[in-house]
Specification:
Length: 326
């Protein structure tokens, strides 16, 4: 077993985590050991086989074991329940493992969640970590990503980092740079700020997906040239990421999800999930919002229809276009 300072653990080898961990293994020196953990055994064996020529990869079975053996534990988990299980479980959790490691004289560990998890859960883990006996030797970081599965595969993710111990940022950045571009690793503020940045950005892009779809659908129903309408919008006040980079109207832009039947993008279910997180965050901090509720209702209606479920969120354009006006 390599020394702890040369051991990093990665928990959650799913759609995002698998390619992230693969790029991490490629980026770490071959003397460095990568520990991997997932509840799906086939993901672990596949990963070991895919990385057999890249350096040591060993399997661990819990957050407890991971944090005892590694000085940094990165997790890429699907939701708040999984985060609570992996971090807070009294027997198998990361925090219990960190306390046990401290008793054995081990110092200074960084634990980092990179999924899109509701702010309340991130702050709960932070609160328990800061109350634990290992608190002075443990830094919890939230570092959610944007860039999707493609960015994870290409190693071009953007990371939004929140940590109350700014001294760890250079170390965090050097590791995240194996999975994203170094200039795209942002220190956003204290713990929870990374998640808030991510959720607020997605809140806006979810709402603009619907708003841009409505606007372009009006043009389409009027029989206008929607490609030309897009060109004019993109040099005018209505321009946004959706109109310029992921236009919802099929055929207006090449190589975007709408032009391949809304496949291979950011699924409408995930988009709605993160919009709801933004709405909950607004409630938590007492920020008045108007557009979240009707947008969520529109997404709910679209994703409950077989024709649109599972597709890229910009499928709300197709849903609007095929709806009868109420
Ligand atoms: P996923 O469901 O494909 O992967 C999650 C992995 O975690 C699975 O392999 C699962 O087996 C594992 N896991 C669950 N519970 C576990 C436990 N207790 N111990 C160990 N492993 C466990 O999800 P994903 O699409 O990779 O997304 C991961 C996170 O990234 C989510 O929070 C998601 O919101 C966020 N995210 C996803 C995308 C995307 O487009 N898929 C983009 C940006 C961010």
């Amino acid at each position: 077993m390599a020394p702890q300072s040369e051991t990093t653990a990665f928990i959650g080898l799913g759609v995002m985590g698998y390619p992230m961990a693969l790029n991490l293994r490629k980026g770490l020196p071959t003397t460095h050991t990568l520990l991997i953990c997932d509840v799906i055994p086939s993901a672990l064996s596949q990963f070991q086989s895919d990385t057999s020529s890249l350096g040591p990869v060993e399997i661990v079975f819990s957050g407890y074991e991971a944090v005892q053996k590694a000085d940094m534990v990165i997790t890429m988990l699907p939701d708040g329940n999984a985060v609570k299980k992996v971090y807070l479980d009294e027997e198998s959790g990361v925090l219990a493992g960190a306390e046990a490691a401290l008793k054995e004289g081990v110092k200074n560990k960084i634990i980092m969640e990179c999924g899109t998890i509701e702010t309340a859960t991130i702050l709960e883990v932070a609160r328990v970590a800061s109350a634990s006996s290992a608190a002075s030797n443990l830094t919890f970081v939230d570092a959610p990503v944007s860039g999707g599965p493609m960015g994870a595969q290409e190693g071009t993710l953007t990371f939004m980092v929140g940590t109350s111990d700014k001294d760890v940022f250079p170390t965090v950045k050097s590791v995240l740079a194996h999975m994203g571009k170094e200039e795209s690793v942002f220190l956003c503020g204290d713990i929870g700020a990374g998640t808030a940045f991510k959720v607020i950005n997605n809140y806006l892009s979810a709402i603009t997906s619907l708003a841009a779809s409505e606007a372009l659908n009006i043009g389409m129903k009027m029989g206008l040239d929607v490609s030309l309408l897009t060109d004019v919008i993109n040099v005018s006040g209505g321009q946004c990421w959706v109109t310029s980079k992921s236009n919802p109207v099929p055929g207006v832009q090449a190589n975007v999800p709408s032009s391949r039947d809304y496949e291979g993008g950011f699924r409408i279910e995930l988009c709605a999930k993160v919009l709801k997180m933004g709405s909950d965050l607004a409630d938590m901090v007492g920020a008045r919002t108007i557009l979240d509720k009707p947008t969520l209702a529109a997404f709910d209606e679209a994703k409950s229809d077989e024709r649109y479920k599972g597709k890229d969120a910009r499928v709300v354009y197709k849903w609007l276009n095929e709806c009868e006006r109420k």
